[in-house]
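Notes taken during the Thursday session

The instructor put the following on the board and asked us to keep it in front of us for the whole hour. The protein is Aryl-phospho-beta-D-glucosidase BglH. We were told not to look anything up and to reason only from what is written here. First, the residues (479 in total):
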Amino acid sequence: MKKFPKNFMWGGATAANQIEGAYNIDGKGLSIDDALPGGPERFNIVNKPDFNWQIDPDKYRYPNHEGIDFYHHYREDIKLFAEMGFKCYRFSIAWTRIFPNGDETTPNEKGLEFYDRVIDECLKYHIEPVVTLFHYEMPINLVTKYGSWKNRKFITFAERYVRAVIDRYSDRVKYWITFNEINSALHFSVMGQGLVKSNGADNKQNIYQSWHNQFVTSAWAVKYAHEKRPDSKVGCMILYATMYAYDANPKNQLARLKENQEFNQYCADVQARGEYPAYADSLYQKYGFKFSDLETKPADFELLKEGTVDYISFSYYMSTAINITDNSLPTANGNLVGGVKNPFLKASEWGWQIDPTGLRIALNELYNRYQKPVFVVENGLGAVDHPNEDHFVQDDYRIKYLRQHIKAVGGALADGVDVMGYTPWGCIDLVSASTGQMSKRYGFIYVDKDDEGNGTMRRYKKASFDWYKNVIATNGEEL
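Then, after some discussion, the predicted structure tokens were revealed:
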């Protein structure tokens, strides 16, 4: 390990739709996430052909409607982050708080005022806000009325939202992220693009069209942020799963190359390099369409070149092993990408394979490919916590996981990688995006709420709270 730089951005990360609650307060509109049921079957429900964004409280629970009520607890929560010593806090702005239906021309002032308060509270404790513009959330009205991100009209609505947000906060926010885990749409397009079976999710051309529209929006956001504040830093954000061929069989090696290009590299290539990669045509051919079938404009490509991101941020939870030669191998669960079980790795309670070395590999691969600073903005262990009678959680398993991954970041620094920071996911317990559960917990702070919505919402420090506090205080020297 190499020593962490003095300006290393230690912190934590959350998302509006998983913590805020207050889903219908102060003018907020309904988002697609408000229509996603809670529970481990949520993805199966959403994948049904008849899913149509209707909220049915008699049939399903919607834990995101309450979240952990950060909307009313943000001062208490940010104070706890400050006690841990956070240098930065990555959070997202809910599009539906700013433009409730998405197609208005005037923003909702009460929504803007809420994020004024959150940002000012961070700055009070010298915590740098790192703000995600689009984090698995968009107005239901836009999806049902205009058909999701595959419709080019989304660019106009999204730019109007970005303009309102940057105009309001750029004096206090230097670091921005455009689209959260933009590449996740390859395997599950509902949260990032608003695509389900009923509006075209099964047609990969729609996913690639949506990506093009998002690339244009991202590039526009980069340019606009730089115009408003020249020292702004705007990053892309991908879900990165380090990929290994299962064995030395050349067929598996080639399959690994292809999967890595399509999942880990394609979106970042366009956003970081400003042009489509050479392998793009082969991807489109696999799905039966050509680039000329996508709706584009000549000005798009100039904008993509002008609006390349300043840094590469990514989530890392697991690696995956690629096999196409042996159908008898057991498969693995994962964060959208599972692959086959890697015999050299253990897995979490949800079957995600734990691989700290894979994070070091990811950091090296990303930095050497793009030559831009990299930022680990999500990493963590989803686990069932068992508090004692005093609501204390002795989460040594979480400490072990994070310690191993922080050591991997230190290893990447020693390799010469320019790593900006590390913000573990779910620094306070929140509703899991993949399962819609509270019981899949990530945080340093326990929130007294269960999967049925019962609990006091009180906050309690876990053992990992003081451990991470010391990690930050010693700048990673004591793990």
